[in-house]
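Tutorial handout. Part one gives the primary structure; part two gives the three-dimensional structure as tokens.
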Amino acid sequence: MGYSSSKDLFRVLLFNQFYPPDYAATGQFIEELATEVSKEGVKIRVFSGQPGYATDIQKAPRNEKKGRLNIRRSRVTNLLPQGVLAKIGNSTLFFIRAFLHTLRHQKKEDLLIVTTAPAFMTWLGYLAHLMWKKKYICLIYDLYPNVVTALGILPEKHPIIVLWQKLNQKTWQFAEEIIVLSQPMKSLIADIYPPCEHKITIIDNWADGDFIKPIKKEDNWFAQKYGLDKKFTILYSGNMGRCHDMETIVNAACLLKEYQGKIQFVFIGGGSKQKWGQEKINQVGLQNFLFLPYQKREVLPYSLTACDVSLISMGENMAGVVAPSKLYSTLAAGKAVVTICPKNSFLNELMTTANCGESFRNGESEALASFLLDLSNNEQLCQEMGHNARQYFCDYFTKKTAITKYLQVIDKVRFSEQKVFS
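Part two.
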């Protein structure tokens, strides 16, 4: 799909706090989205921050230009030290910088796309609409403040949560379109504010199937470097944060202690629960755990395939609130997949439909351990599940499929008059 050639290109300004060289998943998706959309008759600018989430590079160019794609990075994204309050402060500073950027350039843009990085970033779209009648699309990766209440940080009746929900509803009311990542997320937003249901579109994230594709462990330098080609290897790659269930995984590993000469666990990434996991493993005396930092993008095709089984987890109350971005690259890697998630998560149906592994509820450590042990003794079944994972990815989660849907939503906004919904 593409737009008709014209000297007057449609101009989009996209806001997301993270962007490569930061390893944050949303930043990686935004880079690919912006790059592909810029090839289709759209002049797109990304306003982002300096690396700070997960990166080994402290500073990136303030301005970059790649064809019709321009990247502008704020200089004040990571002024405060690490911690929850620092994260809130840095997010607020980024929001202010994004508003000032919009103030200076609002006449140059036809459409704003605002994500949930930071959590309240979509309010910028509503603010721009009030001040300049700007059209905007909300791209919701994680649904806040529902994440906050699901984690028990604040109760639903807390004044901050009540105000946040009211601002969200106003934001959704005047948005041209709302893009979400799953059906449970769409249903949850529709329950909170029913009038916006008709303009919610589900667009799954994706992976680059030409970049990440199946590699046998015996042909994989990453697996050989860390000795993962010698044992049955179970991989968790990505964030180990409060929204993820690391407890069920670690407890399952403890139950498999007597098989640690045969089974290897590899955790790649970081997050608030990483230290807890390391302490628990040391306490039990497990010797079959390898912790590695986030890997550079060029290493991912090898790190993601240096295993026999990949794990994906969600916290107990996270269904419809978050969607695991690692799912798509995991399927692309062509390995058996095991998910740990609530019973109402979309991952359960996906695992059944794709026939690429098994899904377990939060806390089912014994069942998880038993399944992993069975897989370690059945190489053929493990390979069949990996083949099915790759095939399901190719059928539903390619970059081309997702970008086409994004272009359709942008096209719809581009050629329709602005509508205000009560």
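Part three, for discussion. The longest strand covers residues 232-239. Residues 82 and 247 are 24 Å apart (CA to CA).
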